[in-house]
Specification:
Rossmann fold, 2 domains, 11 helices, 35% helix, 20% strand
Length: 353
């Protein structure tokens, strides 16, 4: 059935691909304006719809660039506000979007802004926080009105862009040739035991679409010790998994490996905003006999929304934990870090402190 549906959708993919290709060509030939800034502007993005692990990679860069005054700028997907918003003491996840709000909570020294228009967003950041030295753009690969000084392309190991098709047949937002705009490619969500042979095969497939000198690195997720945001301080190995992310499979694989028994998986759509009714339903679920003494485990992205002022009192009544996540490079960490730092230093024309 799906095979026949794909055949029916091909004309729409061809049309969409033609439109995005023409748009890119107009930007490449400078027919359409693309703004470049004097300070380093690093973009983290992908060619596909759905999660490739952008948020943990942005956080990796925030830790790497901690000696600089850094700002992040996102669109603020599914936020309940419009225009430019700069995170402050009273800002909520609803006003910023879940991922920018996570940056705001976990990196209080970083200026976190959201704006649909990235050019105006960077300009507003510079006006409101004149000390900014570096801007990290979250999910800006296709936002061509702004021209990043350094483009980091993410490709999910489990669904690499070179095997995909343009929407709606596949998940590509544009053609695979968009990879030529990348200064570096990071293959995300890799298994830690990935062999050199497998890496070389992936590199060759990627280099069919990038510039010859574009380096390719491989990263995986490192999960930390669960952190309580509720009534209990010690997590049970019997858990209810609560997620509102694009792809929970890597997390489930890790939890299985670590000996957790997932009794229920309550799954919502990516970027889902929880309501009081959702938390009450979760509380009722935990009252079932089979879930006696079970803990609720969720992601950091979900936890920041569950800790919103409206839900905080209800969340405190549940044995709920989130699992921290960080990016690890499987090899070449020093090379990758040096490449990013060298770019920033060159743009600012000063040595790192």
């Amino acid at each position: 059935m799906f095979k026949y549906l794909k055949h029916l959708l091909w004309p729409f993919s061809i049309l969409y691909g033609g439109i995005t290709a023409m748009r890119n060509k107009l930007y490449d030939q400078q027919v359409l304006p693309s703004h470049r800034f004097e300070i380093p502007v690093l973009a983290v993005g992908n060619l596909t719809v759905g999660g490739t692990g952008k948020t943990p990679h942005v956080e990796y860069l925030l830790r790497l660039l901690k000696s600089y005054k850094v700002a992040t700028l996102s669109r603020g997907y599914k936020r309940q506000s419009k225009g430019f918003v700069l995170a402050g003491a009273g800002t909520t996840a609803a006003a910023l979007g879940d991922e920018p709000f996570q940056y705001h909570l976990d990196f209080p020294e970083v200026a976190v802004g959201v704006s649909e228009d990235r050019v105006k967003g960077v300009q507003q950041l510079q006006r409101e926080v004149p000390s900014i030295e570096v801007v990290l753009l979250d999910d800006a690969m296709q936002h061509r009105p702004i021209q990043p000084s350094f483009n980091i392309l993410l490709s999910d190991y489990n669904r690499p862009f070179y095997n995909d098709f343009i929407m709606p047949v596949g998940l590509l937002r544009e053609s695979k040739e968009g990879a030529k705009r990348a200064d570096v490619v990071l293959v995300s969500k890799c298994p830690t035991g990935l062999t050199d042979e497998a890496k070389n095969t992936i590199k060759q497939r990627i280099k069919n679409f990038t510039n010859p000198a574009t380096p390719v690195f491989f990263s995986s997720f490192k999960y930390g010790v669960p952190v309580s945001i509720g009534m209990r301080h010690t997590i049970s190995k019997k858990i209810v998994l609560l997620t509102g992310i694009a792809n929970a499979a890597p997390l489930i694989q890790y939890l299985d490996k670590e000996g957790y028994n997932i009794l229920e998986h309550v799954a919502y759509a990516d970027h889902y905003y929880y309501t009081a009714q959702d938390v009450l339903k979760l509380k009722k679920l935990l009252q079932q006999d089979k879930l006696a003494h079970a803990s609720v485990l969720t992601t950091r992205k979900d936890a920041v929304k569950l800790q919103d002022k409206v839900l905080h009192e209800l969340t405190q009544q549940l044995p709920i934990f989130y699992i921290p996540i960080e990016v690890e490079l499987l090899e070449g960490k020093d090379q990758f870090d040096a490449m990013v730092l060298a770019h920033v230093q060159a743009k600012l024309q000063r040595p790192i402190s």
